[in-house]
Amino acid sequence: MLIRILRFDILPPSFYLLPSNVPKPINIESLWRHPARTAAPLLLGRFLCHRGKNGAVTRWRITEVEAYCGLRDRASHASKGETPRNRVMYGPPGFWYVYLCYGVHWMLNLVTGPEGYPAAILLRGVEGAVGPGRLTTALHITKTLDGKPCTRATGLWIEGPADIPIGCRRRRGPRIGVDYAGPKWAAVHYRWWLEAKTIKGPKEPRSKRQP
Known about the structure:
The chain has helices at residues 28-31, 36-43, 132-138, 182-187, and strands at residues 2-3, 15-17, 47-51, 57-69, 96-101, 105-111, 119-126, 129-130, 156-159, 169-173, 191-195, 199-200. By secondary structure, the chain is of the alpha+beta class. The chain is globular.
């Protein structure tokens, strides 16, 4: 299956080409300890791995992310303080934060940064599923993962290093659907994505013995 990514809804952003063989300096274990706006672009090209009920594992290249950073970020759930829903954002990094958006779609976020500082990265897209709602639907993600660690034991984790195809553009621009945050926070370039003429769907599942 081929998915075409086209973006016409953003201000002219800066971008550059990344060869696929450039290693990332931050390993996956320490990545979560960095601020969301630092960790978010480093997720591009890494793989979101999901183990299904039958034990089969699929690997989806991450293609779009957004950062939500602390109490001052008016687009963040944390801007109004700690609540039962966003409590996981205040906890240790490396945990999933899953919430229901407009009563329709589950949103998958990864908590990053120091414990006590509410910040998270929204996974907006992977190859084969463009958009955060399509992502969680494709991977059958629900509230059951909220507060769970990003590990193989949970059944949903991220692998690295990044694998960005040659000629693929990494771009940056404003977040989507956050006009409620006011002009300042709606305009910050806290969204990153990969743009290419065509990208393929998820990789074939591996066997149960190779999660």
